[in-house]
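Example: Response regulator transcription factor.
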Amino acid sequence: MWNVLLVEDELLARSGMKAIVDWEGNGFHLVADVSHGQEALEIFRRHRVDIVLTDIRMPVMDGLALVQTIRKQELPCEVIVLSSYDDFQYVRQAMQLGVRDYIHKPTMTPAELVNTLKKVAEELDKKRSIEKYQQLITDVAGASREALLNKALKHIVTNGSAVLEPHITRMLHNAGIMDEALYLCVFRILSHRGSGSEYTPFLSEEETVHSFMRKHMEETDRSPVFLKEKNEWLLLSPACPAKTFHRFAQYADRFGWQLLWEVADQPGDVLQMHSVYERLSRELHERWEAAQRNMRCHPLILKALSYMHEHYMAPLTLEKVSRYIHVNPSYFSRLFYKETGKLFTDYLTSYRLERAQQLLLRTDLPVYEIAGRVGYSNSKYFLKVFKKQFSMTPGEFRRNSAEAEVNNVHLCPQKKKPSE
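Written out as structure tokens, the predicted fold is:
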């Protein structure tokens, strides 16, 4: 059904055209009839108009001014003008403005009016079909370009940056990928209940990620790039994604998923990111295996461990974590020891020191800054705890590790058993 707007200042002529045509029977809906162009523009604000049937000479705003305004505002409709014997000069101007057809009012018959409307409707249908096809081609091309770009990015990160095709390099430059340092984050998602459970999360893993992506894109000017590589997800972001992932972890938890992630300590060139990816993927795989082993743990302890792993760099206490999982601190302490075999403070200390080791091995950060990054505001206390745990200072650990790497020796310092 095509919507028609009739614009005619002569009341008798307007009433006659409304009466002599079976609008609905011929596939048209007369959305309104008005007396001049200004009223017609008001109708456009409230209704979709496909065809305008307008007189040329009218008060307030004539037909030519109406057509000029329609074209200037790029309103999606076609125009048919109604002319009298002495309107030839006006009709020529109207045709130059792109009106689709004209009808001579003094000799107009119902059949001529209907045929003209149908001819314009057919042309309008063809035009809109072409526009839809062109938009479809544009959308497909855009989606193909995005898919190709994502495929290239994934290959560079996961396999190394071999010689790139020129058009791929141009795409990366045009997307801004080559012009800025990016953070890399590798993450996995697993069910809180374990893979062998009959429990099915409300959203699938992919749906959870894409749902969060849409939510994140609505709230930020620059969205990160999410990629899928086998059983891992990759994220490339110009801003450090740590805060984003804390929110993501809370978001995933609502749908029955636990988020495990490793993020690069500093941004880098995407072409040089393969070694960073290998390290993050290896570390994440170790955490993944540990999480799979822990799936037999009580769900409350799994939730507590996930929270501790995400917030180990902040001040954490048994009371704070117990509040997070909504249980009594005494009960939580007993349950934690039963499920992990470690006291809460011993587990937290071990986890923080493992993260400190990683920073010592892969960064040049001073020891006091590493202490702060793993949750120790007092660097002297950090030195004391580290030496007690590994029988060497952080500086000694870093030097010994560097020497071992030079000599191609794998260093694995012997940990002391924490006091239970």
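Residues 193-199, 406-420 have pLDDT under 50 and may be disordered.
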